[in-house]
Design goal:
This protein has helices spanning 2-14, 24-36, 101-113, 115-121, 142-152, 199-220, 265-286, 310-319, 334-339, 364-380, 385-391, and strands at 41-45, 52-58, 66-71, 90-92, 95-97, 127-132, 158-161, 170-173, 175-184, 188-189, 232-240, 246-247, 250-259, 291-300, 303-304, 326-328, 344-346, 361-363. By secondary structure, the protein is α+β, with helices and mostly antiparallel strands. It has two domains: 2-173 and 302-391, Aminopeptidase; 178-300, Alpha-Beta Plaits (2-Layer Sandwich). Helix 1 packs across helix 3 (101-113), helix 3 (101-113) packs across helix 10 and helix 6 (199-220) runs antiparallel to helix 7 (265-286). The model has no long low-confidence stretch (mean pLDDT 95). It binds zinc ion (ZN). Zinc ion is lined by residues 71, 103-104, 135, 163.
Length: 392
């Protein structure tokens, strides 16, 4: 089985599904693998049609089942010192090297290799496969995918997002919102700033307010299960101005909020919007054409599944994880499934510490461990979900 998984993984790696590219080639490849086992699937296209998520159900659609979630895109390799070709799928010393090996084509390969087993096992409960696009650039594909899933099937009782967690069961992570503010003022000679509107000044005032909000979140505290144990707010970039004797007419500021589960990002965003409105008014006092435009760059909700939830224990059994369910610093699509009402856990092979880096790899032993989880999942699907919810 490991040879089959490694073969699929190498083929997945060789399709350069970087988020900036179309992912339709990798979608077509997955469709072919599913079709070879008699599993039909449907695409959930992106608004521009250049990308698609893929949705497939194996087993009875009219019963509650399990979702396995993966993303098809990978991050770029530019500027990284790779010692193996990143898009070849190189096998060396029982490891598969290549972009996406760990994040998260390894899990995808394990799932695809198990499709014949799922086809045979899903007699009492269905398995839904949900593969998204653009996860790496802010979970852009998953909202429509989750929506399409919920519209077409009986609500699933469990979703497993196979991001690399070294097969530990992850029950919670923070949510995230990232925005860009583009400030347009009015340029002018620096000797006569009263006839101009300084865009950098406005940007700095907003950045200063954001720091104040960040300090308040630290004081508010939170849950020691997270590192750091509070909601974070930070300015990632602030650009503007070109020379000292010219009032800058443009500034661009990008900021990010990473919320603790249960903390409402909307409340913080509303306060930021108040500051933005105040600064816009200040600029317009001297330049009526001035403006500050806010755009959302990415947003996804946090995940907060209970440590003692029956599904948390069930996934721990399947993954062979005997330690208490944990939390991670990185975000995933899991919060979107949870938001749709599906108990959701993150658990998959590989280590995120190796993700997004040069010479990304995954071990045969890690793929084999995930494959054992697929075997256990297949066994589970032979029984109706009411039974496993009750037993666990
Ligand atoms: Zn990932």
């Amino acid at each position: 089985m490991i040879e089959r998984i490694a073969q699929i993984l190498c083929e997945l790696i060789s399709i350069e599904s970087i988020s900036s590219n179309s992912n339709l080639d990798i979608v077509a490849y997955i469709e072919r693998i599913l079709a070879s086992s008699g599993v039909s699937s449907r695409r959930v296209p992106s608004p521009d049609g250049c990308k698609a998520s893929l949705l497939a159900t194996i087993g009875p659609v009219d019963r509650p089942g399990v979702v396995l979630s993966a993303h098809t895109d990978v991050v770029p390799v530019e500027g990284q010192a790779w010692t193996v070709p990143p898009f070849a799928g190189v096998i060396r010393d029982e490891r598969v090297y290549g972009r996406g090996a760990t994040d998260m084509k390894g899990f995808l390969a394990v799932v695809l290799a198990a499709v014949p087993r799922f086809k045979e096992a899903t007699t009492a409960a269905p398995l839904h496969l949900a593969f998204s696009y653009d996860e790496e650039v802010g979970c852009r594909g998953a909202p429509d995918l989750v929506c399409a899933l919920m519209q077409s099937v009986v609500p699933p009782v469990l979703a497993i997002v196979g991001e690399p967690t070294t097969m530990r069961v992850v029950r919670a992570h923070k949510g995230k919102v990232a925005r860009r503010l583009t400030v347009t003022g009015r340029t002018g000679h620096s000797a006569m700033p009263h006839r101009a509107a300084n865009a950098v000044d406005a940007g700095v005032a907003i950045a200063h307010a954001l720091r104040g909000f960040a300090d308040e979140e630290v004081a508010r505290g939170g849950d020691a299960a997270f590192d750091p144990p509070y909601t974070t707010i930070h300015v990632g970039s602030l650009h503007g101005g070109s020379m000292v004797n010219l009032v800058p007419e443009r500034a661009v500021l990008e900021y990010e909020i990473r919320t603790m589960p249960g903390r409402d990002a909307g409340e913080i965003l509303a306060r930021v919007d108040e500051v933005v409105a105040r600064e816009r008014d200040r600029l317009r006092a001297s330049a009526p054409e001035a403006d500050i435009v806010s755009e959302e760059l990415s947003a996804y909700p946090g995940l907060d599944t209970a440590a003692d939830a029956s599904m948390t224990r069930l996934v721990a059994e399947m993954a062979g994880d005997t330690q208490p369910a944990t939390t991670v610093a990185f975000g995933t699509e899991a919060g979107l499934y949870a938001e749709a009402g599906i108990p959701t856990l993150v658990c998959g092979p590989g280590d995120m510490a190796r993700g997004h880096k040069a010479d990304e790899w995954i071990g045969f032993d890690e793929l084999a461990a995930a494959n054992v989880m697929m075997d256990r999942l297949a066994d589970l699907l032979r029984r109706p979900s009411e039974e496993w919810i009750r037993v666990s």
